[in-house]
Write a structure and sequence with these properties.
- The structure is a single chain.
- This protein has 244 residues and is mostly helical.
- It is built from 11 helices and no strands.
- It has helices at 3-19, 25-34, 39-63, 69-87, 93-103, 105-113, 127-144, 149-158, 164-187, 197-217, 221-241.
- Helix 2 crosses helix 5 (93-103) and helix 4 packs parallel to helix 9 (164-187).
- The chain is globular and about 50 Å long.
- The protein starts with a helix and ends with a helix.
Amino acid sequence: MHFELFYLFLFILAFLYAAVGHGGASGYLALMALYGIAPQEMKPTALVLNLFVSLTSFIQYYRGHYFKRNLFLMVAVASVPMAFIGGMITLEDHLYKRLLGLLLLFPIVRFFFFRSPTEDELKPYNNLGALAIGAVVGLLSGMIGIGGGIILSPFLILLKWTDQKQTAAISAAFIFVNSLSGLGGMLTQGISFNAHMWAYVAVAFIGGLLGAYLGSKKLNQDVLKYVLATVLLVAAYKLLFTTA
């Protein structure tokens, strides 16, 4: 496959993910898997990309006063240590790609079928529930090499703890801290970055910066969600049914 297209797809993914408050690791991983990059290089590379993109996204949504700090702290306190443990776990390539494909179904379902609660519909969060969700999402995040925002977001929306932009702000911060923790866990087992990682970072950072700015201020969130969900649906199909 042509790597010129790889960089174009990477830019588009970073733009779309950041615009809806995510770091994009699941999309980067799917893209790298489809281009034949080894999982042991995919995971840490995707997490580094996550750090740059999720931080730019968080800053924009934080400035918009959408960040619910207490809820973030509740899910993060359980997820961060579990992400570290997950980062120490290595999966076989075949299982890794199938699990990644399954996890892509979370944002697909959310973006296609979950609407943002109105202010009147929002409910107070449950501490034990937030801790349990954070722990499970953190473990899966570390194992696969994602920040976990794609798994956390559907829960926040479905439980009506946050609206769409509050979810984006919390997810961006959640992704950042879990990506750091997952990288820490991987470091204990030895870590291997893709040789082109810094070129990936530059492209993803520019796409993420533009997406975060426009997504938080100007672009129609519903349109962005449907476009991203369609892209992820194609990637999930390929990972689940066409990769070896």
